[in-house]
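User: I'm writing a tutorial on reading structure tokens. Could you give me a worked example: one chain, its sequence, then its tokens, then a sentence or two explaining what the tokens reveal?
Assistant: Sure. Here is the example chain.
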Amino acid sequence: MRIGFDLDKIFINSPPFIPDALITRLYMKKPDGALEYRIPSKPEQGLRRLSHLPVFRPPIPENLAFLKSIPKDKNKIYLISSRFKFLEGQTNDLVKKYRLDKIFEEMYFNFENRQPHIFKNKVLKKLNLDLYIDDDLSLLNYVAKENKKTKFFWLNHTKKNHRLADNIFAISKLSDIFK
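And here are its predicted structure tokens:
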């Protein structure tokens, strides 16, 4: 099985005390209702570099443990993150610190600053994944339309697992992808 995962909020937590709604508001822009993500201004990039230091972005231990439990002989596991170029240093530090390069078959990062949904859609098509897990439902709705054979999972940390669309399912923990 070919399985892809996002990075942030899947294996690396958000900064504490910053509500998800605020992060989403800073990250996405929808002037006409179309899906579009903001590339931060230079001053905001400096602030975001600080907020992406490991002290503010702790790992999610149960998710890393689950990832390591997936049999590598039967599965190929990929990391697909839409982090922009200005976070390349912090991203490389995380990869080294948590030895992610030893876990994933390949890792893809959006260091060319493409729109995240466009970047991930291109990688998903290239990899022809069976399963993909992300925390961004707007992005999943976009990529699911063009990757009908892939089963998508929205990790939403609620207690209720359910189908959202033909190939999108809400899950509360990573191990639910195999249920």
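What the tokens reveal: Residues 2-178 form a domain with the Rossmann fold fold (CATH 3.40.50.1000). The radius of gyration is 16 Å.
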